Amino acid sequence: xxxxxxxxxxxxxxxxxxxxxxxxxxxxxxxxxxxxxxxxxxxxxxxxxxxxxxxxxxxxxxxxxxxxxxxxxxxxxxxxxxxxxxxxxxxxxxxxxxxxxxxxxxxxxxxxxxxxxxxxxxxxxxxxxxxxxxxxxx
Length: 138
Prior knowledge:
Layout: H1 6-20, E1 24-31, E2 36-40, H2 55-75, E3 84-87, E4 91-97, E5 102-109, H3 114-133
Antiparallel strand pairs: 1-2, 1-5, 3-4, 4-5
Helix pairs in contact: 1-3
C-alpha cells in the first residue's frame, strides 16, 4: 500500500478548491504564526504579474489579519471569527479559519462569485481541518 503524506493531502485539498472556483489566483494554508503550511500554486513562486505577491507574503498578511480580527471581535463581544473578506480594486482575499492554529487564504480576481467561493471555502476548511487533526481516513 502506498504511503500518503499529510502535505500531499493538503496540496490536493487546495488544488480541488482552486479547481472548483473561477478566478482563483492562489490559495494558501497559513499557520497562526504566519508560515505557509501548503499553497496552490505550489512552492514560493509569485502569482502576481509584477512578482509582488507570493505565498509567504500572503501567509504573513493573512495571519496578521486573523489576529487583528480576533482581537477586534473579542473586544466588541462578537464571538469567534468565521470568515473574513478583504476587497480591493483588483481582487479579493477571503480568509477562513480552519482551526485555532491555521486558516485558508484565497486570492480571487475582481468579479469572482464570492458566494460560491465562501461556500466552497467552508467545505475546504472542514476537509483541511480533518487532515490537520489526522481524522481523515484515506
